[in-house]
Write a structure and sequence with these properties.
This protein is mainly beta. It has a single domain, classed as Beta Barrel (Porin). The chain contains one helix and eight strands; from the N terminus they run H-E-E-E-E-E-E-E-E. Strands 1-2-3-4-5-6-7-8 form an eight-stranded antiparallel β-barrel.
């Protein structure tokens, strides 16, 4: 029994050494990506522009980072306004605070999971179906969702030194997003 206890102790002591230095603290990771599968509005509306995602994360520890995120998208839904056929164009703008827990497996590969809470602003405008112009009597409305929770699982792969690719999947403005990553 003592032999097994000693082996387990050495294994537990060696795990931090295996994962050390893969995601150093004090680094900033900047990501720019495109949403591949939009959520929120894709069931009821036609996607007018794919979600665009920007984020910057600061590594507090090798296993924990915090940062900011910003996402943009728009949709077009067939509707009617005052008995006139129209399209409802919605623009989504989300600003959020992010937090990630990292499992750095190799020097060039970083697996992470996290969540964010933010503010989402939605601007809706009724437009003519044929010309796309706003209806003369149409109303532009702005909605603000103060608590917008999001969750994700991601992967960063460094190709050339500090430049690489990333992919994230989860609940947000898009189900899957991918793009470029730069470590500063």
């Amino acid at each position: 029994m003592k032999k097994y206890s000693l082996i387990i102790l050495f294994l537990l002591a060696g795990i931090p050494v295996l994962f050390a230095q893969a995601n150093n603290s004090g680094n900033i990771n900047v990501q720019v990506g495109l949403g591949i599968s939009p959520t929120y509005f894709s069931d009821i509306a036609e996607v007018e522009s794919q979600p665009i995602h920007f984020s910057a994360d600061y590594s507090i520890f090798s296993f924990l980072s915090a940062g900011l995120g910003w996402s943009l998208a728009s949709s077009n839904e067939l509707s009617s306004y005052q008995n006139t056929p129209a399209s409802l164009v919605s623009s989504f703008n989300t600003f959020s605070l992010r937090g990630n827990a990292h499992l750095p497996l190799f020097d060039r590969l970083d697996v992470y999971a996290g969540g964010s809470v933010g503010v989402q602003r939605v601007v809706e405008v009724y437009r003519e179906i044929s010309g796309g112009q706003p209806l003369p009597s149409g109303i532009e409305s702005t909605k603000l969702a103060v608590f917008q929770p999001e969750g994700h699982v991601g992967l960063r792969w460094r190709l050339l030194g500090n430049i690489g690719l990333y992919a994230e999947g989860g609940y947000g403005l898009s189900l899957v997003q991918a793009g470029l990553n730069m470590k500063l």
